[in-house]
Specification:
2 copies of one chain form a homodimer.
Chain A lengths: L6 H7 L6 H9 L1 E7 L4 E3 L9 E5 L2 E6 L5 E7 L4 E2 L1 H5 L6 E4 L3 E6 L4 H7 L1 H27 L2 H18 L7 E3 L4 H8 L3 H13 L3 E4 L2 E4 L2 H8 L15
Antiparallel strand pairs in A: 1-8, 2-7, 3-6, 3-8, 4-5, 4-7, 9-11, 10-11
Helix pairs in contact in A: 4-5, 5-6, 6-9, 7-8
Chain lengths: 243, 243
């Protein structure tokens, strides 16, 4: 595991051993740290030529709004995650991004990607890995919404979030800080806030997990994982692959 | 638009202008063409160190099976699509892949990725773009299953498939060959085969689209696109971005 303090370097380091060369190139790709207040829209659906960022601190989410006003939250961005890089590559953003807390970001110098990949090709493989892992999470959300009941999909989502946070040094195996409102969580799970409330009460009464005052606590991780068929391997947290 | 006959080069060429250097590097990354019969499992969920391929001809699909035996089809692979590259990068496949027709594939020399990215960094950007577009499609499936009714999600899926096929030179703006069985299509849409049958009848009777004898015909693309809020821009089929 990479001992760097930068959450992105730490995350990529779980896949590719990053030497001084790669770490410096990764730093050089990013601009200065900028603060964005909570509740700001950073990129909107359909926007062209927008910037792409790395989240250094705080939480954001990506979502799509439908013609009838319904909203599907696609993903949650935490420290070490890209924000809008995929949308940048697609030139026109296919989703919107909004901050959920105050967020510190660095802007990616997208015009230097080709040069950087030439100089440090391992970084290109690491970024492909990160994109693959992000897609694996969207796939899990698809499977959840398509085939898991409300309890199983809530549990799956929170176990995944806990594992993602732990990788970048936030929270522990049994609890993590979670500033998500119930309405954002419900829109991610594709259920109503009232239904979510009932699910969370049921999980609390079964002594499985508690989500209260901005913290999620797993009371019985084994039973939780069994309940939803959670398999940590898709998060690919095992030993570094490319040395 | 790239005039090469290779569907992957043609697809990537929609994003990055590929010169002789890039085209040759792309060829060198791929092994000889191999035929795989219809109905074969190519990669299974949980498999480690499996190969990654490019589909040269034919159709395949990726899916996940749940504990209770339910199946969610994640995506359909057609000529020019990667098959298992994302899973390879994640080391342990997070999904299974099976052929739907006889399929011709080429194996990717994944051990040469780093060297190739050093030599032709534009190819790395093109592959990141392709991964981004694939993820955009999974996002659309998530939105469909989470927030669109059965008619809208069926229409959305078939419009997307038509656009993807057209990009690699199969089908036209109004019709395309579609070897998907109703059970695979139903598992992709997260509805039952009986329900799908009813939806397809309704679409036919409304003179919107026909899916019969292995062909999909759009009778009124404008009404179809309006019905489901279909926005071609997420498929990123506009002019080449990186010249």
């Amino acid at each position: 595991m990479q001992q760097s303090l930068d959450p992105l370097a730490r995350k990529l380091g779980a896949f590719v051993t990053l030497g001084e060369r790669e770490t410096k190139a990764l730093e050089a790709l990013q601009g200065p740290r900028t603060l964005i207040a909570a509740g700001k829209e950073i990129v909107y659906e359909g926007q062209q030529q927008h910037a792409a960022y790395v989240v250094a601190d705080g939480w954001a989410c990506s979502y799509k709004e439908l013609q009838d006003g319904a909203r599907q939250v696609i993903d949650i961005q935490i420290p070490g995650d890209f924000l809008g890089l995929r949308s940048f590559l697609l030139r026109r953003s296919d989703q919107s991004f909004t901050t959920l807390t105050d967020v510190v970001v660095t802007k990616i110098a997208t015009d230097r990607l080709v040069d950087t990949f030439h100089a440090v090709p391992r970084l290109a493989v690491a970024l492909l890995w990160a994109a693959s892992r992000d897609e694996a999470m969207v796939v899990e959300h698809l499977v959840s919404v398509g085939r898991r009941d409300a309890v199983a999909r809530t549990v799956h989502f929170l176990l995944e979030l806990g594992a993602k946070l732990k990788l970048v040094g936030h929270g522990s195996a049994t609890e993590f800080p979670c500033p998500l409102s119930q309405s954002v969580l419900a829109d991610a799970l594709g259920i109503t806030s009232i239904h979510l409330n009932r699910v969370l009460r049921q999980l609390r009464e079964s002594e499985l997990l508690i989500f209260r005052d901005g913290w999620v606590t797993f009371l019985d991780r084994e039973r939780l994982a069994a309940l939803t068929g959670f398999d940590y391997s898709y998060l690919d947290l095992e030993t570094t692959a490319l040395r």
